[in-house]
Amino acid sequence: MEDDELESPDIEYEARDDDDDDDDVIIDNDGEDDDLFHLRLRVTTLSDENRRMRRKVSSQVQQIRKLGLRLEELQREIERSDQGRRALALIELELETEIYRLNDDLVSSRSQSAMELRRLREAVDRLRLERDCLVRRTAVMEARVRHLEARLGRKGGCGGENVVEEEEGKGFLGFPWRITASLVGAVVVVVFAVVFLQSSKEKQR
């Protein structure tokens, strides 16, 4: 662009004819030769045009430099935009990976919770069976005790009372059967409370 302006300046000069008649306007040159005067005048005109052209070229060069700086700034903005898009893509990938990991953890936690709940239910079922067995045994032993009391009551005497106490002392772990039944009932209640709390926690999750 700069070379084009230098090679083909948009300058218009007045056409001058050295063979004009003497009737043309005569420029007062103070006795200087006409050709020399016209040459000097042309050089002055060309110098002025050259200065104007230089100023114009300088202005255009500054404009080109500004455009170059603007182009570099745009390129940097494009690079920053590309970096931002790449960073955003990495963040999206990390988020997707984290979501998959959390989903896997949730599925695994649910599976473990289901297994634990199943084991607790099986334990409760076993405790219920043991409780039923103890209740039946307790009922049998109470029937025997009542039968013995009835027989001893007919006989009377201190010896009979000692026999009753001796029979009642043969309960579970050395405790009377009535106390054993009460302990078993308390254990069952505690187990049911634990299972209920566990199921409530699972529902909250």
From TrEMBL:
<feature type="region of interest" description="Disordered">
    <location>
        <begin position="1"/>
        <end position="24"/>
    </location>
</feature>
<protein>
    <submittedName>
        <fullName>Uncharacterized protein</fullName>
    </submittedName>
</protein>
<keyword id="KW-0812">Transmembrane</keyword>
<feature type="coiled-coil region">
    <location>
        <begin position="57"/>
        <end position="84"/>
    </location>
</feature>
<keyword id="KW-1133">Transmembrane helix</keyword>
<keyword id="KW-0175">Coiled coil</keyword>
<keyword id="KW-0472">Membrane</keyword>
<feature type="transmembrane region" description="Helical">
    <location>
        <begin position="175"/>
        <end position="197"/>
    </location>
</feature>
<feature type="coiled-coil region">
    <location>
        <begin position="110"/>
        <end position="137"/>
    </location>
</feature>
